[in-house]
Predict the 3D structure of the following.
Amino acid sequence: MSVGTSLEPGLRGASGDPRPLRVTSPAPVDVWEQVLASAPNALPSQTPTWLRCVCLVEGYEDVSRLYETADGRRLVLPLVRRPGLGPILATDFGLPVGWGPGGLVCDGGELHPEDVRMVVTDLGRRHVLSTLVRPDPATAATWEAAVPASVLREERMTQTLPLDGGFDEVWRKRFRSDTRNRIRRAERAGVLVECDDTGDLVRVFQQLYRESVDRWARRDRLPLPLARRLAARREPPRKLSTVAAMLGSRCRVYVAYHEGRPVAAIVVLLGARTAMYWRGAMLEKLAGPVYANYLLHKTAIADAVAAGCTSYNMGDSARVSSLELFKSRFGAVSQDYASYRIERLPITPLVQRARGGVRRILALRQVRE
């Protein structure tokens, strides 16, 4: 069902940038697939199948946008929206929290600043409360060069391991020596890794995830029932099972076993040339001493190379964190990028100021009491 189609031949925006010749929403799946076929470096989270997973699990509706320019180029922006609100009250997400980066995918895979300018201008004209876009980190420089300074930004950092040269090159020149040693120690300790792309290991991952939630709750001093409710809302059990069923062989669950017991697991998604580490869980006291996570990622990286991938996206990390250090030990390169919130009216600054005012009032009351 088309949410809205506009034809704007020969028009120019206020900035002088050309408007698209045609905008179609939702983006037709067949055209989207054609664009992806010419952009092999696109992320697994930039596909129509992924967007269907988001909608099925979270209850969103597809409001993706296909842009066709006067010179015949096509660009697709994955977007979803909560149904029933109407555009004036709606916030569009590309993509929601927990679903990875979205952003533009275009014919040929080469994104230009004028493409970003055109799309941001279009998004700013719509009668939508807010649009949050989290682009592919690999295109960060292009987005930053084109997005106006007035657009709100959330700074992020991701880490990606280049896989060019083959696994032997990655092993010898990108893995740190202490990483290779930890992998060998895991193998000597008897850690075994099982890989599945049929969904059979989803339940094993989910059990490890539930135990991880309990550990995080103890670490963060959260009441256990509250932590479990928040985790179930953020990562409902149907999420991974839906992704595994929809993506098939493109979704791989890796589980590390020690002494016959599952101690750690990761989920890796495969695109044409980009593998994406999506989720992880472990029993820290059992997995840590035997370096199970090192062997898990080594196995997944070797498989990604064998599948023809040229990069292994390890996801976002906080600067100067243990997670950043762990990923860097595999040779993952840090990349700064940003999410962008495009609003017709400055709603977010007003909300942030209101929240800040409430916090200051509460702090004053505590001081007086």
